[in-house]
C-alpha cells in the first residue's frame, strides 16, 4: 500500500531550488529536486509521513503529509529560507568567491541580518562578539570613536596590528585621517551586506605583505537582476546616557577629609558648594539615524542607491557627530552574461565636534566644593565660570580648569569627506571556455580639515603675559588652530582566471597584478590667538610648510584550487609584494600558502549518515607579512628640519637646525608563519553546526623598536627586524537552532576564542636588561607601566609588589624587595599579567515567535587586566592637598588605602578586568505588509550596553591597552527603530 | 620599477642638505643644539633619542643630574622611577636616567661623526667653493671639539665605552670598547690637535655661542686636572699650562652688577647673559632662548625644577610656574656663613626647612635661586610658555682660574701667588667688591687644595662640577665626607667605591658584547 509525494521547492525569491535533498523521515526513500525545483518520491507507505527537505545553505524544512495508497500527494510550493550560518553559502575570498564547502582556510562571515542591531555608527561594530577570534574594542563612548580590531591577538610589536580592510574588492587605508577618530566611520553600516574575516594564512596570504593581522572583507549591498523597485526606509531614534560614574568623594566628605588632612591654607580654599562635576558634563544624548535606499533595475541594469543621515550627540556636553552618506552601485551584466560590470561609488561627509577627553578627567578631580558659576567680579574675564585664580586675577598655574567652562569654551570641529569608488569588469573570454579576465580600478580619497577655537574666556589659554598682551585684549587670549589632510589612494588590479571541470575534479587558477599608490599630504599651521591673526608664539615661524608621504605597492599574485569529487580540496596561493617603504635590496617578498581540505561528508561512509550532515577537516600553512611600521622613508638617510622653537643661536642669529636621523637600510617586512587546523561540522541537518580551529602563529623578523649599539647609528633606538613572537590559540564557533517550528524559532550562536601570546626573541639579551618600557601613565613624567620582555606576553604590566598589613590594606610605600638587596629600586619591578584577554566569548540568541522577535548579544572577556590609572594618579591625599591655592577631589579608593602620596607603580592598582557585557537586546515586531503585496514594516526597540558584570572597580574594564585614564564612558543607549520597505 | 623609489619632500636626503654653506651651518647648529634641545620641535617633539621621556632626555639635564644630584649640592623630590637613585647612590645598570645620559652622549658623538664625514676635504671641494670651504673647515673643527667634549663626559662618567669615529659607517655594527686610558688619550690628542689647528677659530674670534681654541685649552686644563683619577698619572703641570693660556686670552671677571636686580656674580646666570659684559667671562655657553631654543631640560629645567609654588619665588626667577623638585642640602648652605657678604649663596628659605626628613617633600631643604630667568632690567623672560633664556656656561673664566689655582696648589708648575690672587679675585667678585682691590672681608691668605674644593662649591655650585670635584678630592663615595641622604640614609653613609663610575647601561651591553661593564655592577 504505497503512494507518491510530489512537490516543488523554491528559494525566498521564488526561484526554483535544484539539488535539494528530500527524504521521507524514518525511511530510506528520497530523491533530490530537479532543475525546476520539483521532486517526486514513489513507493511511500500510505499514512502520515514527514518529508524532510534539506539543502546546504538553507534551513531544512519538515513537511507533514498524508499519503494515500495509489495516489500522488502534491505538497504546496515550499520556500526554503536561506541560512547563511550554514556551510554552503558563497564566501567572499580575496579576488573572488568560493563555496563555503570548498574553503580550506579559516574564514568567518556575518551577513547583514545577523549584524549587531541598535545604533551602530562604525562598520566594525556590526560584528562585535559575533566571530571567534575577532576582537573589536571601541575607544570609548564618543560618537565615531576609534575602534581597535584584533584578529587572533597581536602578531606584531611595533608594526601595525590592524587588519587589512577590503571594501568591495578595494584594499583601503585604515590609517587615520585628521578630523575623524575612526576612518571607517565614513562608511555607513546600513550599506553593508556582509563582513567576512579571513583569519589564517592560507586565506590571507593572497594579500601578502599586509595580511599578517588578518583581512576583513566588507561587501556592500547591491541591486539584484530582475528585482522590482524596492524602497527601504530605516529610521532610528536613540537616547544615550552614561551607565555609571567614577566614584569620587562628595563635597561634604571632601570638606571633612581636607579639614582632617590639609593645612590651614588648604582648608581656607574649601568652598561651600556641592557640585557633582560629572553630573555637570554628562547629559542624556539623542541620536537620529535615517536611511533610505532604492533597489531595482533600469533596463536590466540592477542598481542600488542609498542615502543616510546620522545626527548623533555624545553623552558629554558639546560632543556631536553628523554624517551624510550616499552610495550608488550598478551591476549590469552584458554580452549574454559574459561581461559583468560592477560600479560602486560611496561618498560621505562627517562633521564632528570633538571634546578633549582630559575634561572627563578634570570633572573627576575638580574640587566638589566649588560652584560651576559664580557672580563674583573676579570671574568675569572667565565668562562667570568659577576658576582657581591668583590674587591678581590671573589663572593659578598648575590648577585644573573648570571642566564645564573648558568644554563650552572649546569648539573643536572637523569636516571630513571621503569618496571610495571602483569600476570592476569581469569578462568571460568567448574563445576559451572557463577563461575570464578581471580588471578593477579604484580610488579612495579623503579630505579632512578642521579647527579648534578656544574662547578668550578659557582658563588654560588666558594670556596674561605683560609682553605679548599688555592691554589684556581678549582677542589676544584664547587660541585658534587649524589642520588639514588630504589622502589619495589609487588602485589598479587585474587578473585572469581559468576554471576547468574534468569529471568531478574542478580546477581553478588565477594570476594577477596589483598597483596601489597612497599619497598623504597637507599644510602645517601655526597656532594663533582668538583674533586668528596674532601668533601664540610671536616669533614662531614655519620652517617646514607641510607634510607629504607617498607609498607605492606593486604586487603579483596567483592562486590555484583543486577540488576532487567534492572531497579533497587544495588551495595554493603565492603573492609577490614590492614596496617603496624599503630599500631596493629588501623590497621584494614572497608570501606562499597552501590549504588542504578533506570533506569527510562526501565519503561513502558518511554520505548517507543521517546524523552527521557536514564534516570537513582543514589544514593550512602560510606566510604573510607586515610592512606598516614607522615612517615611509625609514630606510633612507635623511635630515629632519627643526621647527623655530628648536633653533640654535650663532652670534645674533638663530639658525634652523637640520638633524641627520637614524635609519635602517636593512628594514624589511616581518613574516608571520601560521599553521591552522580546523574542523567544520554539522549534525541533524545542520541544526547544530560549528567550526573548530587551532592555530600557531610565529612572527619572525619581528619589527621591534630596539636599541642599536650606542654610537653605531644616528639615534639609539630603531625599528629593526630583530625578534620573534608567537600566538597560539583555539577557536570554537557553534550555531544551533534549538527550536524550529511554524510559530516559534530560536537560533543561537556561541563563540569562544583562547589566545596566548609570548615574545620569544628581542635580539641579543643581557641578564640585567629588563626590556623596553611602554605604556605611559599619568603621574610623574614619562612614567611607563608596561614592558616588552622576552618570555612574556606583549605589554606585560611591570609593577612593584605591594605589601599589605594584617587587615589586608596596602602599606604605603612598602613593596616586596624581590631581589633581596635591601633597597627598592627598578630591579624590584616584576611582570604581572597583561592587558589582552586570554579568552573571549560571544553569545547571540535570536528568538522569533510569530511576528515578534527577541534577540540579544552577550560578550565576555576573561583574563584581561587593567591598570586603574585614575585611582593610582588621584586617590592619595598629596593629589588633593599637594598644591597651594587649589584642591582636587579624591576617588573614593582613598578610603581603602589612605595613601598620603602617589604610589603609581603599585600592583595594588592592577585589577582583573574580566567582564560580561550585555551588548545588545533587541525586541522586534513585524507589522507585515502595509500598502501592498511585497511591502513590509518592522518596528524594533533596542538597548545597547544593557549591563556590565565585572569586578573591576573603575567605570569599564574594556579598555584597549589596559590603562584606564580619561576614558570616555560607553553610553547605555535605547533605540527605537522603524524599517519599511515597499 | 621606478615608482618604488619614493623620496621624502619635507625631509631632505643628504645630497640636498650639503649643497651650500647654509646647509652645513644648519647641521652644525644641530650639533650645538644637541646639548640644549631634545628634538626637532621645541620644547618637545620629534625627539632625538628613544627609550626615555623626551623632556628627560636633554643632554644638559641629565649631565647636570649625574654631576649634582649625586652630591651634597642637590636633592630631588620627584617620584619618577630611578630619579632618586642619583642621591641615594644605589643606581644600577637599568637606571633609565643613566641610560638616557649615556645614549645622549653617544648620540652627540654619532651626529658629530656624521658631520665630520660629510665635511671631508674631498666632499667640501666638490660641494663648496671659495671662502665657504674655509668656513666649512672651521665648522668641522668645531664638530671635532664637540665630539671630544662628549667623549670627555663619557670617560668622566662611565670610564670606558664604545668608540666610534667618522671612519665608521652608520648602521647597527658593534663598536669596539675603548678603556678609560684609551678615551683619555683620544680626547687629549683631539683637543691638542685643535688647540693649534689653523682651521679652528683663534681665541675670542668666533661668533657668540660657538667655540674656539680657548675652549679647547680650557677643556685640556679640566682633563689634566683630573688625569690622576682618569689614568693614575697626575698632569698638574699641563693643567696649569692650559688654564693659563685661557686666562691670558683676554677674558675677564668684570661683570658689573645690575643695580637693584642682581650682583655682578648673579648676572652670569640671568636671561641676558648672552651679551656683554657677561660675554667677557663665558668661554662657551649652551644657548637657550624662551622662543627659539626650547626644551624641558637645560636651564628651563634648572629654574622651573628648583622652584616652588610660591608666587614670590616664581617672580624672583622669572617664571610663573614651579616644578617643585630640586633643593640643596645643608652642606652647601653651610659653605656660606654670611650670604649677605658672599652674594654667590642665593637660597630660598621662606617656607622651606634646612633639614630634610623626607626626600620626597619639596619644602624640606633650601631652594637655590642661582639661575634666574630675568634680564638685567628685572623683567621676567619666561613668557607664556615658561621657557628659559638663560645660557648655561659650560666653560667660564672663574672655573679655569680655579683649575690653575688647584693645579698649582697640588704641586703643578706655576705661580703660587698668582694662583692665590685668582682665588681672591673670584671671591671679591662674589662679595660684590672691586676685583682688583684687596679686601679683608673676601681675601684668603694661603693657597690650600682643601680650601679650593669649598671655593669651587661656592663659585661653581649647580654648574655641573661637583661629582667630579668630590671624586678628585676622595670625598664622593667615602664615609669620611657625608651629606644628608648620601647613600639613602638620613645622615648619609659611605657607599661602595665602584660608584665613582656609573654603570654601562644593560641595554647597550645586551647589544654590544664588545663592551665591558664597570667593576661592581
List the keywords:
heterodimer; A: 982 residues; mainly beta; Ferric Hydroxamate Uptake Protein, Chain A, domain 1; Maltoporin, Chain A; 3 domains; five-stranded mixed sheet; B: 521 residues; mainly alpha; two-stranded antiparallel sheet; 8 strands; 4% strand; globular
Structural features, described:
The complex is a heterodimer of chains A (982) and B (521). Chain A is mainly β. Helices cover 6% and strands 49% of the residues of chain A. Chain A is globular and about 105 Å long. Chain B has one domain: Serine Threonine Protein Phosphatase 5, Tetratricopeptide repeat, CATH 1.25.40. Chain B is 40% helix and 4% strand. A two-stranded antiparallel sheet of chain B has the order 1-5. Chains A and B meet through strand 28, strand 32, strand 33, strand 35 and strand 37 of A and helix 2, helix 5, strand 2 and helix 19 of B.
SSE diagram, text form:
The complex is a heterodimer of chains A (982) and B (521).
Chain A (H helix, E strand, L loop, with lengths): L1 E9 L10 E4 L5 E3 L5 E8 L1 E9 L2 E10 L4 E3 L3 E2 L10 E4 L2 E4 L7 E5 L22 E5 L8 E5 L12 E4 L2 E3 L19 E7 L2 H4 L10 E6 L9 E13 L8 H11 L2 H6 L7 H5 L3 E14 L2 E13 L6 E11 L2 E2 L4 E16 L3 H8 L37 H7 E19 L6 E20 L24 E24 L2 E19 L22 E19 L3 E12 L8 E12 L4 H4 L4 E15 L12 E3 L6 E3 L2 E3 L2 E3 L9 E14 L4 E20 L9 E24 L3 E18 L10 E5 L7 E5 L7 E4 L2 E3 L5 E6 L14 E2 L7 E11 L2 E11 L2 E3 L1 H6 L2 H5 L12 H4 L12 E3 L2 E14 L7 E15 L20 E11 L1
Helix pairs in contact in A: 5-6
Chain B lengths: L13 H4 L3 H13 L25 H11 L5 E2 L8 H4 L7 H23 L2 H7 L3 H28 L2 E2 L14 E2 L1 H16 L17 H13 L1 H5 L4 H12 L34 E5 L11 H7 L6 H6 L9 E2 L2 H4 L13 E2 L18 E2 L23 E5 H13 L6 H15 L18 H12 L5 H7 L33 H6 L10
Antiparallel strand pairs in B: 1-5, 2-3, 4-8, 6-7
Helix pairs in contact in B: 2-5, 2-7, 3-5, 5-7, 7-8, 8-9, 9-11, 9-15, 11-15, 15-16, 15-17
Amino acid at each position: 500500500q504505497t503512494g507518491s509525494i510530489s512537490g516543488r521547492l523554491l528559494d525566498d525569491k521564488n526561484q526554483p531550488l535544484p539539488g535539494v535533498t528530500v527524504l521521507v523521515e524514518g525511511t530510506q526513500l528520497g530523491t533530490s529536486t530537479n532543475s525546476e525545483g520539483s521532486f517526486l518520491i514513489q513507493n511511500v507507505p500510505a499514512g502520515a509521513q514527514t518529508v524532510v527537505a534539506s539543502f546546504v545553505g538553507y534551513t531544512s524544512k519538515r513537511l507533514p503529509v498524508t499519503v494515500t495508497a495509489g495516489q500522488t500527494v502534491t505538497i504546496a510550493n515550499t520556500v526554503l529560507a536561506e541560512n547563511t550560518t550554514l556551510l554552503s553559502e558563497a564566501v567572499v575570498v580575496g579576488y573572488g568567491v568560493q563555496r563555503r564547502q570548498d574553503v580550506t582556510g579559516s574564514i568567518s562571515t556575518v551577513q547583514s541580518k545577523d549584524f549587531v542591531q541598535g545604533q551602530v555608527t562604525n562598520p566594525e561594530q556590526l560584528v562585535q562578539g559575533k566571530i571567534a577570534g575577532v576582537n573589536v574594542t571601541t575607544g570609548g563612548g564618543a560618537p565615531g570613536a576609534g575602534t581597535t580590531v584584533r584578529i587572533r591577538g597581536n602578531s606584531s610589536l611595533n608594526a601595525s596590528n590592524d587588519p587589512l580592510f577590503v571594501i568591495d574588492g578595494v584594499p583601503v587605508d585604515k590609517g587615520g585621517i585628521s578630523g575623524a577618530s575612526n576612518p571607517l566611520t565614513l562608511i555607513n553600516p546600513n550599506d553593508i551586506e556582509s563582513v567576512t574575516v579571513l583569519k589564517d594564512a592560507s586565506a590571507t596570504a593572497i594579500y601578502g605583505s599586509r595580511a599578517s593581522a588578518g583581512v576583513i572583507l566588507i561587501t556592500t549591498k547591491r541591486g539584484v537582476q530582475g528585482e522590482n523597485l524596492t524602497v527601504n526606509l530605516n529610521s532610528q531614534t536613540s537616547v544615550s546616557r552614561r551607565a555609571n560614574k567614577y566614584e569620587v568623594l562628595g563635597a561634604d566628605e571632601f570638606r571633612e577629609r581636607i579639614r582632617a588632612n590639609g593645612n590651614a591654607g588648604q582648608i581656607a580654599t574649601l568652598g561651600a558648594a556641592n557640585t557633582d562635576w560629572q553630573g555637570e558634563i554628562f547629559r542624556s544624548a539623542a541620536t537620529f539615524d535615517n536611511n533610505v535606499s532604492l533597489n531595482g533595475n533600469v533596463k536590466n541594469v540592477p542598481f542600488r542607491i542609498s542615502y543616510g543621515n546620522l545626527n548623533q550627540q555624545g553623552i558629554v556636553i558639546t560632543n556631536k557627530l553628523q554624517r551624510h552618506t550616499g552610495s550608488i552601485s550598478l551591476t549590469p551584466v552584458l554580452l549574454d552574461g559574459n561581461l559583468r560590470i560592477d560600479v560602486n561609488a560611496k561618498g560621505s561627509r562627517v562633521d564632528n565636534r570633538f571634546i578633549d577627553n582630559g575634561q572627563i578627567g578634570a570633572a573627576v578631580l575638580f574640587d566638589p566644593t566649588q560652584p560651576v558659576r559664580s557672580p563674583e567680579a573676579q570671574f568675569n574675564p572667565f565668562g562667570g565660570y568659577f576658576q582657581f585664580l591668583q590674587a591678581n586675577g590671573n589663572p593659578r598655574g598648575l590648577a585644573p580648569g573648570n571642566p564645564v567652562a573648558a568644554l563650552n569654551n572649546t569648539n573643536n570641529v572637523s569636516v571630513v569627506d571621503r569618496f571610495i569608488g571602483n569600476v570592476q569588469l569581469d569578462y568571460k573570454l568567448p574563445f576559451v571556455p572557463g577563461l575570464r579576465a578581471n580588471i578593477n580600478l579604484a580610488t579612495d580619497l579623503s579630505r579632512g580639515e578642521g579647527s579648534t577655537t578656544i574662547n578668550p574666556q578659557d582658563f588654560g589659554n588666558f594670556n596674561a603675559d605683560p609682553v605679548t598682551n599688555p592691554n589684556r585684549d581678549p582677542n589676544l587670549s584664547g587660541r585658534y588652530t587649524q589642520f588639514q589632510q588630504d589622502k589619495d589612494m589609487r588602485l589598479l588590479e587585474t587578473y585572469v582566471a581559468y576554471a576547468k571541470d574534468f569529471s568531478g575534479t574542478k580546477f581553478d587558477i588565477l594570476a594577477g597584478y596589483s598597483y596601489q599608490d597612497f599619497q598623504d599630504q597637507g599644510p602645517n599651521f601655526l597656532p594663533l590667538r582668538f583674533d586668528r591673526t596674532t601668533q601664540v608664539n610671536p616669533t614662531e615661524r614655519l620652517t617646514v610648510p607641510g607634510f607629504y608621504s607617498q607609498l607605492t605597492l606593486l604586487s603579483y599574485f596567483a592562486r590555484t584550487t583543486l577540488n576532487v569529487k567534492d572531497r579533497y580540496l587544495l588551495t595554493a596561493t603565492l603573492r609577490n609584494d614590492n614596496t617603496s617603504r624599503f630599500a631596493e635590496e629588501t623590497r621584494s617578498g614572497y608570501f606562499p600558502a597552501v590549504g588542504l581540505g578533506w570533506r569527510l561528508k562526501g565519503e561513502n561512509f558518511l554520505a548517507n549518515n543521517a546524523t552527521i550532515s557536514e564534516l570537513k577537516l582543514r589544514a593550512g600553512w602560510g606566510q604573510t607579512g607586515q610592512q606598516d611600521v614607522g615612517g615611509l622613508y625609514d630606510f633612507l638617510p635623511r635630515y629632519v628640519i627643526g621647527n623655530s622653537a628648536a633653533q640654535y643661536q650663532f652670534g645674533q642669529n638663530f639658525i634652523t637646525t637640520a638633524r641627520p636621523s637614524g635609519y635602517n637600510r636593512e628594514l624589511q617586512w616581518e613574516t608571520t608563519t601560521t599553521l591552522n587546523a580546523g574542523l567544520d561540522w554539522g549534525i541533524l541537518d545542520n541544526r547544530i553546526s560549528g567550526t573548530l580551529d587551532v592555530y600557531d602563529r610565529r612572527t619572525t623578523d619581528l619589527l621591534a623598536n630596539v636599541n642599536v649599539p650606542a654610537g653605531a647609528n644616528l639615534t639609539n633606538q630603531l625599528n629593526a627586524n630583530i625578534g620573534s613572537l608567537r600566538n597560539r590559540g583555539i577557536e570554537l564557533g557553534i550555531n544551533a537552532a534549538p527550536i524550529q517550528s511554524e510559530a516559534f524559532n530560536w537560533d543561537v550562536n556561541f563563540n569562544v576564542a583562547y589566545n596566548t601570546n609570548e615574545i620569544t626573541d628581542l635580539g641579543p639579551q643581557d641578564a640585567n636588561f629588563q626590556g623596553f618600557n611602554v605604556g605611559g601613565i599619568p603621574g610623574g613624567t614619562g612614567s611607563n607601566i608596561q614592558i616588552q620582555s622576552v618570555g612574556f606576553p606583549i605589554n606585560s604590566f611591570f609593577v612593584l609588589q605591594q605589601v599589605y598589613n594584617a587587615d589586608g590594606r596596602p602599606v604605603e610605600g612598602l613593596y616586596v624587595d624581590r631581589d633581596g638587596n635591601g633597597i627598592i629600586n627598578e630591579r624590584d619591578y616584576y611582570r604581572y599579567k597583561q592587558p589582552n584577554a586570554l579568552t573571549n566569548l560571544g553569545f547571540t540568541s535570536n528568538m522569533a515567535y510569530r511576528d515578534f522577535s527577541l534577540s540579544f548579544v552577550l560578550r565576555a572577556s576573561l583574563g584581561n587586566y587593567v591598570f586603574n590609572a585614575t585611582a593610582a594618579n588621584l586617590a592619595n591625599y598629596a593629589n588633593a592637598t599637594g598644591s597651594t591655592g587649589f584642591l582636587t577631589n579624591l576617588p573614593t579608593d582613598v578610603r581603602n588605602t589612605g595613601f598620603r602620596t602617589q604610589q603609581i607603580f603599585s600592583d595594588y592598582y592592577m585589577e582583573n578586568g574580566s567582564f560580561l557585557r550585555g551588548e545588545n537586546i533587541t525586541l522586534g515586531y513585524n507589522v507585515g505588509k502595509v500598502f501592498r503585496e511585497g511591502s513590509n514594516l518592522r518596528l524594533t526597540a533596542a538597548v545597547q550596553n544593557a549591563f556590565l558584570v565585572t569586578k573591576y572597580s573603575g567605570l569599564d574594564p574594556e579598555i584597549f591597552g589596559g590603562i584606564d585614564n580619561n576614558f570616555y564612558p560607553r553610553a547605555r543607549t535605547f533605540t527605537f527603530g522603524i524599517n519599511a520597505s515597499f | 620599477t621606478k615608482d618604488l623609489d619614493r623620496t621624502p619632500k619635507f625631509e631632505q636626503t643628504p645630497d640636498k642638505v650639503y649643497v651650500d654653506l647654509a646647509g652645513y651651518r644648519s647641521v652644525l647648529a644641530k650639533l650645538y643644539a644637541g646639548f640644549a634641545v631634545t628634538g626637532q620641535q621645541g620644547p618637545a617633539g620629534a625627539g632625538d633619542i628613544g627609550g626615555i621621556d623626551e623632556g628627560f632626555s636633554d643632554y644638559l639635564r641629565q649631565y647636570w643630574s649625574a654631576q649634582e644630584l649625586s652630591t651634597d649640592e642637590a636633592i630631588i623630590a620627584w617620584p619618577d622611577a630611578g630619579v632618586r637613585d642619583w642621591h641615594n647612590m644605589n643606581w644600577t645598570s637599568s637606571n633609565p636616567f643613566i641610560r638616557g645620559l649615556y645614549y645622549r652622549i653617544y648620540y652627540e658623538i654619532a651626529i658629530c661623526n656624521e658631520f665630520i664625514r660629510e665635511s671631508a676635504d674631498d666632499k667640501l671641494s666638490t660641494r663648496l667653493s671659495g671662502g665657504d670651504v674655509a668656513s666649512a673647515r672651521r665648522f668641522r673643527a668645531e664638530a671635532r671639539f664637540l665630539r671630544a667634549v662628549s667623549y670627555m663626559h663619557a670617560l668622566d662618567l662611565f670610564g670606558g665605552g664604545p668608540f666610534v669615529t667618522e671612519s665608521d659607517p652608520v648602521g647597527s655594527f658593534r663598536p669596539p670598547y675603548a678603556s678609560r686610558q684609551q678615551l683619555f688619550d683620544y680626547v687629549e690628542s683631539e683637543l691638542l690637535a685643535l688647540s693649534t689647528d689653523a682651521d679652528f677659530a683663534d681665541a675670542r674670534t668666533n661668533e657668540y655661542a660657538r667655540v674656539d681654541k680657548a675652549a679647547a685649552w680650557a677643556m685640556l686644563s679640566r682633563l689634566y686636572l683630573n688625569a690622576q683619577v682618569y689614568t693614575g698619572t697626575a698632569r698638574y703641570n699641563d693643567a696649569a699650562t692650559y688654564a693659563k693660556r685661557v686666562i691670558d686670552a683676554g677674558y675677564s671677571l668684570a661683570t658689573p652688577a645690575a643695580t637693584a636686580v642682581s650682583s655682578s656674580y648673579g648676572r652670569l646666570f640671568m636671561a641676558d647673559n648672552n651679551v656683554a659684559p657677561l660675554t667677557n667671562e663665558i668661554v662657551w655657553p649652551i644657548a637657550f632662548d624662551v622662543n627659539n631654543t626650547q626644551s624641558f631640560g637645560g636651564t628651563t629645567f634648572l629654574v622651573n625644577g628648583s622652584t616652588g609654588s610660591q608666587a614670590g619665588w616664581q617672580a624672583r626667577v622669572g617664571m610663573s610656574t614651579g616644578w617643585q623638585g630640586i633643593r640643596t642640602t645643608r652642606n652647601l648652605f653651610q659653605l656660606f656663613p654670611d650670604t649677605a657678604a658672599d652674594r654667590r649663596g642665593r637660597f630660598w628659605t621662606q617656607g622651606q626647612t634646612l633639614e630634610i626628613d623626607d626626600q620626597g617633600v619639596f619644602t624640606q631643604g633650601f631652594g637655590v635661586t642661582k639661575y634666574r630667568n630675568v634680564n638685567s632690567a628685572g623683567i621676567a623672560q619666561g613668557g607664556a610658555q615658561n621657557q628659559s633664556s638663560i645660557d648655561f656656561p659650560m666653560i667660564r673664566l672663574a672655573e679655569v682660574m680655579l683649575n690653575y689655582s688647584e693645579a698649582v696648589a697640588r704641586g703643578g708648575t706655576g705661580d703660587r701667588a698668582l694662583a692665590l690672587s685668582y682665588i681672591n679675585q673670584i671671591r671679591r667678585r662674589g662679595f660684590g667688591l672691586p676685583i682688583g682691590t684687596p679686601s679683608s672681608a673676601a681675601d684668603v691668605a694661603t693657597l690650600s687644595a682643601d680650601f679650593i674644593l669649598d671655593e669651587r662649591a661656592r663659585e661653581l655650585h649647580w654648574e655641573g662640577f661637583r661629582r667630579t670635584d668630590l671624586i678628585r678630592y676622595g670625598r664622593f663615595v667615602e664615609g669620611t665626607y657625608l651629606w644628608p641622604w648620601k647613600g639613602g640614609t638620613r645622615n648619609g653613609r659611605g657607599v661602595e667605591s665602584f660608584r665613582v663610575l656609573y654603570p654601562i647601561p644593560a641595554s647597550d651591553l645586551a647589544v654590544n658584547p664588545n663592551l665591558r661593564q664597570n667593576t661592581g655592577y
